[in-house]
Amino acid sequence: MAPDLLKVAQAMKRTHHCNELRPAHIGQTVTLCGWVHSRRDLGGLIFIDIRDREGRTQTVFDPSALAAELFNKAASLRSESVIRVTGVVRQRPAGTTNSKIVTGEVEIVATELEILNMAAVLPFPVDDPEVAAKVNEELRLQYRYLDLRRPEMMRNLRLRSKLAIALRQYFDDNGFLEVETPTLFKSTPEGAREFIVPSRTNPGQFFALPQSPQQFKQILMVAGVERYFQLARCYRDEDLRADRQPEFTQVDLEMSFIDREDIYNLMEGLLKKLWKVALDIDIPTPFPRVPFAEIMNRYGIDKPDTRFGMELVDFTEEFRASTFKVFSGTIAAGGVIKALNAKGLACATQGQIETMTEYAKSFGAKGLAFIKVEKGEWKSPIVKFFSAAEKEALTKKLAIEEGDLILFAADQWLNACEILGKIRLYCAEVLKTSGKLTIPPHQFNFLWVVDFPLLSFDKEMNRWYSSHHPFTSPVVEDIPLLLTDPKKVRGQHYDVVVNGVELGGGSIRIHQPELQKTIFEQVLQIPPDVTQARFGYMLEAFKYGAPPHGGIALGFDRLVAILCGTPSIRDVIAFPKTAKGTCLMTQSPANVDARQLRDLHIELKLAKKPVEVEVKPQATPPVPPTK
RNA sequence: GGGGGUGUAGCUCAAUUGGUUAGAGCGUUGCCCUGUCACGGCAAAGGUUACGGGUUCGAGCCCCGCCACUCCCGCCA
Q1: Lowest CB count within 10 Å: A30, A49, A118, A564, which one?
Q2: Complex ipTM, two decimals?
Q3: d(Cα A417, Cα A427) in Å, to the nearest integer?
Q4: Can you give the distance from the CA of residue A608 to the C1' of nucleotide B54 in angstroms?
Q5: Where are the alpha helices (DSSP H) in A280-349?
Q6: Is A578 exposed, middle or buried (0-12, 13-18, 19+ CB in 10 A)?
């Protein structure tokens, strides 16, 4: 490059970021680049706050020291225009420093201003954090590039990047290889609904986007990689939630020659590091390891929030011979009685109780028995059936006090637990809103849920299916029960849970082809030809020396969301989809032209006419009249 | 697939029981202003009340339909 061009190019560049200037820089000539955060035009003096990714700095345009042309240029600037300002750093006059920003002791007396790009009038404000945070999410997603300029969103992106780098470093330190696996994969209809991709070169055939790199990572173990990890993009064509997107990122890993404890230790080390990096919090390890049956008994959900009590208590023995037939009858039919004490919720209105009852019914409960403890009395339609001994047992085991609300579930064990588990969470929400339950913002209760049942029974189909996936290894001593008592077989599966959120799960896998074949054909009753078509390549691979192995996957988006303190993973994904799976910014999905379909040998047969993509009128403010 | 919530000016929100010309703050535009940082002052523009029907003398408000966003259930091996 010619020397003069090089000089121009260097003059283009900033000398500092907008968070850097301090009294130590006074007297220096500096250049800043960024966006017009705000402009305060006092007529004879203009202040412009310039903002970049790092922070904000005040610049001053003083007509006594400037060409009129430059001053007018500054006066014409609109919010969010892109500028480059050169000037001299000086101390702010006494009494005009701004303690709210780190550069608040100094300002730049502008000597040059270049407008790199004028911005149109904004569809929503990005400079006022309070207003911006309330803006309709639809609008934020449509103009995501403006939304991401907000410091809060930029902070989320930055933390996400920091965490990704920290975990890569952690895995490298622990001897892992990062391997990328294909996203054009094969349909495996056993799991979640998949996104299907037609193959042009193989008419009538389809790829599927992977729900996880599960099979590839196991084959990498057969390949002798020994320790693999990946920040893997995964796809599921299911309905969305605040914590679910159709494409999402998993921290995926697999190790050979290990057992469950090795996974626990590795992940505890990782999470310890990430919490330190993000929040400077030392989380205690090891995490409790609690069997599934105990978790269900105590919390009624497999991802319990243990930051508050209100645990479920069993009263099956106490009510076995009760004169209250609803309870004793349920027990006689093989069911259980569970209760929970919603501390301080006796104030619940009739309406709230009804809401809870309806809620319980929506999960299959027949009703929801309750006792309100008010003014020393037990107010309840059922308490008249209870004997003194039964009342005493309740008082003792539930530690009943004035102001409590006791709720009961009578059903088969798992149903009773699950119903009361949902009610427990509902009560916690009510107590939180009324200020009777407060949870410190930086409390993190981690735990491992272990010993899940390997198999679940599908009544409609009258067959067993894998609780997780068919490659999960049974607990070794339970293998003999596979064909005799499948219900009792525990899987070597584990979930890591924090504050009621399932952060991830994994398992030790089956590495013996014979056992895998038994599970597929005899336990799951998948016909051999189907097994062969779907998983033949895996069974084949496992014939040539598969090491014992296991792994886990963490939901990276959820992890980042928790560390950013946001309830929605959309806030930590740069370009998320809406609840209907569309992208408001790019207006996708969209129609394709007939020729593309013809190339793919696809013909559309739609019940309804394809909805013509309505070209939304851009929410642009009226164009101001020209001067 | 089912249930709940929301939709009024560019943005955030009001609008009493269905009743006059649908208001406010911010933003925008014009004028004034040399120490502001939520700058200030004066003035102005800006509305198919998401959309389509219906009831009514009269609908932002009631009814039916529909669309979008959102939360939850189902679903997510």
Answers
A1: A118
A2: 0.94
A3: 15
A4: 26
A5: 292-299, 325-332
A6: middle
Residue A337's closest CA among A226, A416, A436?
A416
Nearest residue to nucleotide B50, by CA–C1' distance, is A616
User: Measured CA to C1', what is the nucleotide nearest A123?
Assistant: B10
Distance A584 CA to B61 C1' (A): 31
Decide: A565 and A557 in contact? Cβ < 8 Å: no
Strands (E), A240-376: 247-256, 289-291, 313-314, 336-342, 369-374
Output the CA–CA distances (angstroms, integers) from residue A227 to A222, A255, A538, in the order listed: 11, 5, 19
How many Å does it take to go from CA A623 to C1' B28? 9
A169, A188 contact by CB (below 8 A)? no
Q: Are strands A501-508 and A549-555 parallel, antiparallel or unpaired?
A: antiparallel
Q: Which nucleotide is nearest to A570 (CA to C1')?
A: B70
Burial of A100 (0-12, 13-18, 19+ CB in 10 A): exposed
Give the nearest nucleotide to A363, CA to C1'.
B73
Among residues A74, A155, A166, A149, which one has the least CA distance to residue A111?
A74
Nucleotides of B under 7 A from a protein CB: 1, 10-13, 25-40, 45-46, 68-77
Q: Treating both helix axes as pointing N-terminal to C-terminal, what angle do A214-222 and A528-542 enclose, rounded to 10 degrees?
A: 40
A617 CA from B48 C1′ (Å): 14
Determine the Cα–Cα distance for residues A563 and A453; give it in Å rounded to an integer. Answer: 31
Q: How far in angstroms lies nucleotide B48's C1' from the CA of residue A140?
A: 25
With CA of A45 and C1' of each nucleotide, the nearest comes out as: B34
- Give pLDDT tens digits for A16-50: 999 999 999 999 999 999 999 999 999 999 999 99
Q: Which residue is nearest to nucleotide B77 (CA to C1')?
A: A191
- pLDDT given at position A109: 96
For the beta carbon of residue A356, count every other beta carbon within 10 angstroms: 23
Residue count of chain A, please give it: 627
Q: Determine the distance between A137 (CA) and B23 (C1') in angstroms.
A: 25
CA of A352 to C1' of B2 (A): 22
- Whose CA is closest to A90, among A109, A64, A66? A109
> Which 3-state string (H, E, C) describes A415-475?
HHHHHHHHHHHHHHHHHHHCCCCCCCCCCCCEEEEECCECEEEECCCCEEEECCCCCECEC
User: Using CA atoms, how far apart are residues A150 and A148, in angstroms rounded to an integer?
Assistant: 5
Beta-carbon contacts of residue A537 (< 8 Å; ≥ 6 apart) = none
For residue A6, the model assigns a pLDDT of 61
Mean pLDDT by 10 residues, chain A (627 residues): 60 89 97 95 95 95 90 94 96 95 96 94 88 90 95 94 98 98 92 94 96 96 98 97 97 98 98 98 97 96 95 96 94 94 87 82 82 92 93 96 93 91 90 86 95 89 89 96 94 97 96 92 91 90 96 98 96 96 95 94 74 40 34
Q: Which residue is nearest to nucleotide B68 (CA to C1')?
A: A138
Query: So what's the pLDDT on residue A354?
Result: 81
